[in-house]
Amino acid sequence: MKKFTADFETSTWQEDETFVWAWALCEIGNNENLQIGNNIEDFISFCKEEHNSVMYFHNLKFDRRIYYLLFINS
């Protein structure tokens, strides 16, 4: 099982509307496996490919709200 550190960069258009405009993942112990993107669709695609992985999010207090909403229905 691979383990990654992860981070979202977000922006808010309206008070209740937030979107991810950049993301990054780096495999722990393998710095050459760095993934970056600028749309949430690519992040979702990567996660589907690495479905047995663990991801540790920087700033989880905020990012988990987005992460939870993305995967609650998967």
Q: Can you characterise this structure?
A:
By secondary structure, this protein is of the alpha+beta class. It has a single domain (3-71), classed as Ribonuclease H-like superfamily/Ribonuclease H (Nucleotidyltransferase, domain 5, 2-Layer Sandwich), CATH 3.30.420.10. The chain is built from 2 helices and 4 strands. It has helices spanning 40-49, 60-71; strands at 3-14, 17-27, 34-37, 54-57. Strand 2 and strand 3 form a beta hairpin. The protein is elongated, with a radius of gyration of 12 Å.
Biggest beta sheet summary: 4 strands, mixed
Rg over alpha carbons: 12 Å
| Name of the CATH superfamily | Ribonuclease H-like superfamily/Ribonuclease H
The CATH topology assignment is Nucleotidyltransferase, domain 5
Mean pLDDT: 79
Distance between the termini: 20 Å
Domain count: the total is 1
Strand order of the largest sheet: 3-2-1-4
Feature tags:
about 70 residues; alpha+beta; Nucleotidyltransferase, domain 5; four-stranded mixed beta sheet; 4 strands; about 30% helix
Quick summary:
With 74 residues, the protein is of the alpha+beta class. Helices cover 30% and strands 42% of the residues.
Topology:
Blueprint lengths: L2 E12 L2 E11 L6 E4 L2 H10 L4 E4 L2 H12 L3
